[in-house]
Amino acid sequence: MTELELKYGCNPNQKPSRVFMEEGNLPFEVLCGRPGYINLLDAFNSWQLVRELRAATGLPAAASFKHVSPAGAAVGVPMSDTLKKIYFVDDIAVPLSPIATAYARARGADRMSSFGDFIALSDTCDEATALLIKREVSDGIIAPDYTPDALEILKAKRKGTYCVIKMSTDYRPNPVERKQVFGITFEQGRNEIDLTSDELFSNIPTANKDLPEEAKRDLKIALITLKYTQSNSVCYVKDGQAIGIGAGQQSRIHCTRLAGQKADLWWLRQCPKVMALPFKADIKRADRDNTIDVYMGDEYEDVLAEGTWQNFFTEKPEPLTREEKKAWLAQNTKVSLGSDAFFPFGDNIERAHKSGVEYIAQAGGSVRDDHVIDTCDKYGITMAFTGIRLFHH
After folding, report:
1. Confidence class of residue 1 from pLDDT cuts 50, 70 and 90?
2. pLDDT band at residue 20, thresholds of 50, 70 and 90?
3. Which residues constitute the domain of residue 338?
4. Separation of alpha carbons 386 and 232, rounded Å
5. For the chain, what percent of residues have pLDDT higher than 90?
């Protein structure tokens, strides 16, 4: 097949819409459903991301995409019981495979943003992964293959309309890519920069030069994730998964703040007081996720007000105080951070430090590099200058 007609483009008024190959056949097969324009943008960006994570780490990888940026990305590192609980995967009847674990991590990092996502898997989708996907609100999935049991589960999702795409692992795109804007054709070489080598972190200008293997792995995950995130972007990573992604901001500090806020919420969800929230048994998954998010924030009264809390809880919880949040957040350590371009000011480092960042990889090359290095040294942070910019638009 050389062409696939789509329902419409980015919006319903944008017709006609299609994807096609100028030479050869389309490198994917639609096994179920009817993908849309944005679905395929998410699918092909996320497929590249998980394929590169697999190559860089040697571990199965998964991504959760929304509006052409990742909401989450992860590799199949075993999860603690705490993570299984806050990701709501501790009740699955079958053992979680490495690829199912990668998906649980990618989806669980920012469940609010992952609502209605497009999923990418680096490895064959198995039954365990399909069972996790079955109960989430999602638009579709792209993977190199599916086991018969997994495919049967996914084909039954959304009354048989769930989008399931099988991607060819042999496909290699033309090294020159094109797109049109306002009727004008843009052309550039594809961004095929290799982010798998430890040489990325050979230039460490900070006083602290300690960079453990796990930190190198997490920094690679951050940089590869940023390669497919709308710029400007910053990514916090811990234990093999993105825990906070700040995408598409005009200011670097706003990227760092946004991603840091998401990383903080990820850590706060592991606070015993949050994990013990007495939810009603019949609460929907999306309502529970939203309630947790509001409860942890400054507007907690929106879910704890009299006449409101009864909709979510069996008894009224005590608020999570500012002092409790501060004390719990101080326990988050060993976080890695990647930036898709240089940090122009030390304020980014100040903000990153508040979220437990101890390792940083960024392009370097700012006229204020010395200030950024000094701020890292103030907190004992190890920072590598990669010399690589990773803008994506």
Report:
1. confident
2. very high
3. 176-268+329-385
4. 17
5. 98
Last residue of a domain, one of 167, 195, 223: 167
DSSP calls for 97-126: PHHHHHHHHHHHTTHHHHTTEEEEESS-B-
Domain count, the chain: 3
Of 113, 142, 167, the residue at which a domain comes to its end is: 167
Of 67, 85, 134, 254, the catalytic one is 67
At 300, list the tokens. Answer: 């907690």
Residue range 145-166, pLDDT digits in tens: 999 999 999 999 999 999 999 9
CATH number of the domain where residue 157 is located: 3.40.140.20
What is the predicted pLDDT for the residue at 222? 98
Domain membership flag for residue 356: yes
262 a catalytic residue: no
Question: Which position among 66, 84, 157, 325 bears the catalytic label?
Answer: 66
User: 3-class SS at 23?
Assistant: coil
> Which pairs count as long-range contacts for 292-295, CB under 8 Å and 24+ apart, including other chains?
293/112, 293/265, 295/319, 295/320
Tell me if 215 is assigned to some domain: yes
Both 73 and 163 in one domain: the answer is yes
Active site residue 66: yes
Q: Provide the 3-class DSSP secondary structure of residue 245.
A: strand
The rounded mean pLDDT for the chain is: 96
Peptide linkage before 272 cis (omega within 30 of 0):
no
pLDDT tens digits for range 242-282: 999 999 999 999 999 999 999 999 999 999 999 999 999 99
Is there a single domain that holds both residue 278 and residue 250?
A: no
Q: Are residues 218 and 346 located together in one domain of the fold?
A: yes
Q: Return d(Cα 346, Cα 356) in angstroms, integer.
A: 16
Residues 257 and 290 in one domain: no
- Is residue 324 domain-resident? no
Question: Which residue of the set 45, 232, 332, 348 is catalytic?
Answer: 232
131: pLDDT strictly greater than 90 = yes
pLDDT reported for residue 93: 84
Span 332-359, average pLDDT: 97
Asked if residue 310 and residue 192 are part of one domain, the reply reads: no
Whether 254 is a known active-site residue: answer no
